[in-house]
Write a structure and sequence with these properties.
Structural class: alpha/beta
Largest sheet: 5 strands, mixed
Distance between the termini: 34 Å
Length: 179
């Protein structure tokens, strides 16, 4: 096979409900287990969840979901690759938005963002917010809080032990507490 195709296939993990693209083997296993953890934590399981990890997104964005794709049943999280802990943090942030959407708290339509059924801000205004204003939006405030606390619950729990034996690099990371 072509080397580029081999590298791509090594970076993809597909399970019954989740596709993970763009990470090394050991991170695929960590992210898969983390998604299982998030499903239990939030008591929700988005169908057909896709996690795309890119080397660089843009200067202002480190991860995102697309609300119009969510409305069409495509649960896709795109995050920037900056190390395992960072990726778990960004997945948590964006997964929180999927949960908010599935619980009918967050929506986007007609070029506006809706929170709990009420028009809250235009997409254009949202895209021009500075960090201070952005962090005060109710859906972002919740996601920012979750991204700080939830990955630690996963890492400090026994969840990683389930992954021992799947990959030599992962075994080394887990056995030496490198997360």
């Amino acid at each position: 096979m072509n080397k580029r195709i081999d590298e791509f296939l090594e970076s993809v993990l597909i399970t019954e409900n989740t596709t993970i693209v763009g990470v090394k083997n050991y991170n695929k296993y960590i992210i898969e287990e983390y998604i299982n953890f998030l499903n239990t934590y939030f008591n929700i399981q988005p169908q057909n969840l896709k996690i795309k990890v890119n080397k660089r997104i843009n200067k202002r964005t480190f991860g995102y979901i697309n609300l119009s794709k969510l409305r069409n049943g495509k649960n896709e999280i795109v995050i920037e690759s900056k190390g395992t802990n960072y990726m778990l943090s960004m997945i948590t942030h964006e997964y929180t938005h999927i949960v908010q959407y599935l619980k009918n708290n967050l929506d986007g339509k007609d070029d506006n963002i809706y929170w709990k059924g009420k028009e809250y801000i235009s997409v254009e205004d949202y895209n021009n917010l500075d960090y201070n204003a952005y962090s005060k939006l109710p859906w972002e405030k919740e996601a920012l809080e979750n991204q700080k606390k939830i990955p630690d619950l996963f890492i400090n729990g026994n969840h990683l032990d389930k992954l021992l034996g799947k990959d030599d690099s992962l075994d080394y990371i887990i056995n030496n507490n490198l997360l």
